[in-house]
Amino acid sequence: MNAVAHPDARPDLHRSGVGAVLVSTWRVGTPERQRAAVDAIRKAWESREWPDLGLLSYSVHVGTDGDTLLHYSQWTAEEAYEDFVRTYRDDRNAEIDAAVPGIERVELRRYAPIHRSTVRAGRGTGELPGIVVVVEADFDGPEAGSREDWVDTVFTAMDEDTATRPGSGGVAAHFHLSTDGGRVLNYAEWESEQAHLEWLADDARLDEAWTRVHRHPGLVGGRVKRYTPALSLSAGV
């Protein structure tokens, strides 16, 4: 059973059976190398049998910064990923590195399945090509409730946005909590990069609700990056 590639596709974030989500970042340097790396990933995976060890899907996103790639994979459990690393990962990475030398593998983080999710009324997450905005919020420790409270605070701010700026361009937001207790990842879907940039420039982001988000107890840092869905791989039927 070989891998089936779906170009320009997002993962199915709510598919059944997901017990762990792995998210990693690569730096490749230029838009040309981004495209070459995506092509190399596709070739390396399509030329091999799907590793039937609990891997449900593997998706790649291209950063609008012209440098990074974001990898989002869904597994039945973290142990399934460990089995993949021991058995299948090295030869795939070797082929990719031969095609695109000098890839910097920056970080790998492990997350539980989606904690909370919302889709703006009247929108579907599969109907627009758009972009994915990945927000990573870092916390100073796994204190009970701090990350969950922060997500709830973000939802309150988003609800106010929906009431005051219904045409802002946001489509959906999906929140993961890292298994190490230190991070929240928001996989947010937007109509376009321009829509997200306009939202960032709007003074409404400085209102009381968003101020509570940015000054939440335990929050020590974060970053925002925009990506275009490039490739989603899954097992053939």
Give a quick rundown of the structure.
The chain is α+β, with helices and mostly antiparallel strands.
Verbal overview:
Strands 1, 2, 3, 4, 5, 6, 7, 8, 9 and 10 form a 10-stranded antiparallel β-sheet that branches. This protein has helices at residues 31-46, 78-87, 89-99, 146-164, 193-201, 208-214, and strands at 3-7, 20-27, 55-63, 68-75, 104-111, 116-119, 131-139, 170-177, 183-190, 219-235. A hairpin with a 4-residue loop joins β3 (55-63) and β4. It has 6 helices and 10 strands; from the N terminus they run ββαββααβββαββααβ. It is globular. It has 237 residues and is α+β, with helices and mostly antiparallel strands. Helix content is 30%, strand content 35%.
Oligomerization: single chain
Largest sheet: 10 strands, antiparallel
What is the typical, i.e. mean, pLDDT? 91
Element order: H for helix, E for strand = EEHEEHHEEEHEEHHE
* Beta-strand content bin: 35-45%
Number of helices: 6
Q: How many β-strand runs?
A: 10
Helix content: 25-40%
Given helix and strand content, the structural type is alpha+beta
What shape does the CA trace take?
Answer: globular
Radius of gyration: 18 Å
